[in-house]
Amino acid sequence: MLRDKRQEYLVALLLVGPFVLIYGALFVWPTIQMAMLSFTKAPLIGTGDWVGWDNYVKILSHKLFHQAFWNTAYFVLLTVIPNTLISLVIAMAVNRLKGPVQGFVLACFFLPYILPVSVVFLTWNWIIDVQYGLVQGFVALFNGGQPISLTRTIPLFMPTVAFVTIWWTMGFNILLFIAGLRNISPEIYEAASLDSAGRWRQFQRITWPLIWPVTALVLTIQLIAQLKIFDQVYLFSIGGRQDATITLVQYVYKLAFQQNKGGEAATAAMLLFGMIIILSVLQYQLLRARGEK
Amino acid sequence: MADIVLRDVSKSYGAVQVLDSVSMHIRSGEFIVFLGPSGCGKSTLLRMIAGLEAVNAGEIHIGDRRVDQLPPNQRGVAMVFQNYALYPHMTVRQNMSFGLENVGTDKGEIAKRVDEAARMLEIGQLLDRRPAQLSGGQRQRVAIGRAIVREPDAFLLDEPLSNLDAGLRVRTRVELAQLHQRIGTTMIFVTHDQTEAMTLASRIVVMNNRKVEQIGTPMEVYSKPASRFVAAFVGSPSMNFLPVTALADVGGRVVVTAGGSTIPTTIATSVAPTVGQGLTFGVRPESLRVAADGEISGTIALVERLGDRTLIHTKLSDGTVIVGDDIGKSTLEAGAPVRLKIDGSAVHLFDAQGVAYHAD
């Protein structure tokens, strides 16, 4: 059916209009404002004098920024790849189950994902509590029979929070992997078993390459999410030496809300924003290229 | 090259039985077709031979080995799947090499076999492509190629032509027959298409309702169907069936009264059942020719012109419609009266259990 071209445009505009408007007002405009703010000496509220690149020079040479950067990088290292691999293994196991059992087991793994971070924090803070935590019985085996605080011992802090984060978020990754695994036709595995491919070889040559696009997606989503880590690290470090375990978003928070340095906080946020864009685009392109090889 | 023997093979999923005590002996080099309607268990039987489905009872032997407890790769069979089941991320060459790599075949040998199969199937120029870049017919060839390079004792083909368009299906059918002649390996081919079965098979295994109805050459199955089911399922257009109202004995031969006509046959009275057993008379359209001196008279309900022959749908006095045959250039029109002459040597009787009795 032929329609008036102008009418078509009008309808199209009407349909995209609300989104573009809200996206512009709530994301694009504030982002531009933040970029502008990073070049000023503004407090948290109100405007400030233009200082050019001064904030960037200052932040980049700030010791705490370096600390936050390396802590974040360490956290990313501890979560992104392990979370992806564990999720894949669990997804493959769940995928072998059938019918209602599969639904139940999947629900069990997915349940933590729907919990708010405060509940996750309280639950695990209780489990790892140094006096009555369930985990202490296990931890004591590695500490000469003595309990040890997992969130007050600095070298153990990040691995502990990483573990809790993996437990909390893997449900979603498992779901993505299961969707991907179900896309692989069972006939392909039957063909492979006739082709003398054992379990491991089937995984290596069939499952892994065919699930790769999902793996790349999960890795990228994870990378972005973990670079923005704040809640868990903040909650578990309350009352401790927060600077020792500070992450980048926490650093932004500290500058803005504890030190009233709006301009510098914006600068740190811009640096993080740039990092996330570069890293995630780079990673996704690299992973995709690998998949196409 | 090996014989395949099935002994009382049964299969059920929970309470649902899908195969009931199936036995057969497939000779080395035969082209066997499992023919039957959807859900008759033919694909399940093939998958059981392949080792993709467990056998609940009975034995499967390939060559001198009992294989029903062996994993698929140790049975010496290769399978072509309905949807080809090619590895989508591998090139054609990798698809064909995979099975040989897994058993540690020498690289040079793999390349030799793949190139040879590719030449035989005329897919040499496709070796570096992926399945997604191939047409349905090309994928089909690759799937066959993947089976050939393994040099199996038997090829198992699960409705491999059903995803091809009509023209390509006929061409591939011919090529498959030629391929079988050339390599001479046992082939078991599953289909619900009786034309494929008739044209390809050395012997057809007609299956229905969990059981084997008949095993025979295409012409045996066609001209001497073992049961009413086989008679109805094989042949297009289908056989005509008329209830028998009376039987008479004229010189040791049965004379049938059916559809209001008296029809002499060459069925021996000695072997024929007696009336009252719910007898049905069966005759194929090509044995029911338009002729002025025909035994059966009726009115033409519909004329189907196929070019080389004309199908005359004839309404009998009792309202039954049967299909007769006329020459391609038939001038008959619907509504006209017609007489059909039966070839009494090509008729069948079926009792209430569906058991068939044939003319000599």
Automatic annotation (TrEMBL), chain A:
One cellular-component annotation, GO: plasma membrane
Membrane topology type: Multi-pass membrane protein
GO biological process terms held by the UniProt record: transmembrane transport
Localisation: Cell membrane
Membrane-spanning intervals of the chain: 9-29, 73-92, 104-127, 156-179, 206-225, 265-287
Top-rank lineage group of the source organism: Bacteria
Domain ABC transmembrane type-1: from-to ranges: 69-283
Database matches in InterPro entries: ABC_transporter_permease, MetI-like, MetI-like_sf
Keywords associated with the record: Cell membrane, Membrane, Transmembrane, Transmembrane helix, Transport
Family named by the database record: Belongs to the binding-protein-dependent transport system permease family.
UniProt name for this protein: Sugar ABC transporter permease
Automatic annotation (TrEMBL), chain B:
Keyword Transport: yes
One GO term of the biological process aspect: carbohydrate transport
Keywords tagged on the record: ATP-binding, Nucleotide-binding, Transport
Coiled coil region boundaries: none
Listed Pfam families: ABC_tran, TOBE_2
Chain ranges of the ABC transporter domain: 4-234
Localization in the cell: Cell inner membrane
An annotated GO cellular component: ATP-binding cassette (ABC) transporter complex, substrate-binding subunit-containing
Gene Ontology molecular functions: ABC-type transporter activity; ATP binding; ATP hydrolysis activity
Family: Belongs to the ABC transporter superfamily.
Protein name: ABC transporter ATP-binding protein
Organism: Devosia riboflavina
